[in-house]
Input
Amino acid sequence: MRIAVCASEGAPYVKSGGLGDVIEALPAALAQIAGNEVALFLPYYKKIKEAGDKYPVELVSQYRVMLGWRQQYAGLMRLTNRTDGVQVYFIDNEYYFGARPGAIYGDIDDGERFAYFSRACLDAMLSIGYIPDVIQCNDWQTALVPVYLKAMYRGAMPNTRCMYTIHNIEYQGWANASFFDDVLGLPWEYRGTLDMNGSVNVMKGAIETADLVTTVSETYARELMYPYYAHGLDGILAGAAWKLTGITNGIDVGTFNPETDSALPAHYNADSFVEGKAACKAALQKEVGLPVKPDVPLMVMVTRLAGHKGLDLLCYIARRLLWEEDCQLLILGTGEPQYENFFRNLANEYPEQCSAKITFNLGLAARIYAGGDIYLMPSKSEPCGLSQMNAMRYGTVPVVHATGGLKDTVPPADENGEGGLGFTFQSYNADDFLASVKRCLNLYHHNRDGFRALQHRDMCQDFSWNVPAGRYMDLFYRMLSW
Ligand code: GLC
Output
């Protein structure tokens, strides 16, 4: 099958969050399947361009992209050193991507930048004669791919089907009504497809025009039927429920492997984790300035410090937790100033028990997954969440809010640590969160064998992309049968 994946970020080239991880691993997993041909399209951001020696490219075509009254240049650059069967193409335009300093999102004209990119992906395929059976596109940035495909590329790609995947419904791609004529240049009958309350909403357009819609866990797919989770799109999604499926992400088990991870001071697997994690824990406590205490449970969190990650719950219980329990707390991440300040202050107040690393550091993140005992993830909503899986793979027991992908990947254990993979709480409430953390600490303190059995079970799970990639294939075949 000929597959094209379109996305605004993909590791290792460019990543701002979980989408980048998925776009690193999913195309690779699809390319492993016999008979598949996989091409990945990404913008040629300044940052990728500047890393030219790491990511050598050749120019394979040049063309113009129509955007309303604009005609914009596109250069299609093929990466020449990828070896796993995925063809990676970067779309080069100096004005939209090359000359922008800093972050990949957040410019005033992001709507136009990614409208350009979405259309440029389709034109890229035509320019090199790569007519895919299936296009898979992701989040608001590439939401216009199915819209353009249906509205303007049917002649050139009559049999191409399109799957649209929602990683996070909070960001939908809103624009003023004038964006429709000025930038998109779509036929007028698509105005209603994109219209939402008098504005343009590109995610809505994708939901309506894609052949199938997926999201990144089964539970999140169901949650999206409710206003609480759907950020205004519940009605649209209810209408599209027949074509909405949840497929829980995997993680890159090659990169996230405690046996080989070069960031770790000691290596281990499911049989040797007791000694291996003890060594990693001692080194970690030292690295972050906490007292080296092997028998004090170390609770950790690697996260963007954003409200929906459940930090309000943690802030509410943090002092009580440190006061009442023999435990340590370590946070790594950056984000909203009120949370950065809260954790800095907490670390100053409780230097023996709390450390806050307000920074972004992938090596330290790996050492935290390995050296921690307990991983906290009380997210308010979580489409899938990847770090709870990273934590389990490294033998760190998750305590999570039972929502979205957290619910699907962390079935609840009982107070003996049996029958599940971690500790969960149902309602988004700080006392319930505290109670589940305490159940976990209790197991650690009073039944270490039970705690270790739980860690062992966590490490033995298959979080690879094999199963989800197979599910994507099933849906691809379903679209092709129509
Ligand atoms: C988004 C979601 C996260 C998910 C990731 C990859 O970042 O917030 O839950 O794991 O996308 O699909």
About this structure: The longest strand covers residues 57-67. Residues 17-19, 22, 167-168, 216, 249, 382-386, 405 surround alpha-D-glucopyranose (CB under 6 Å).
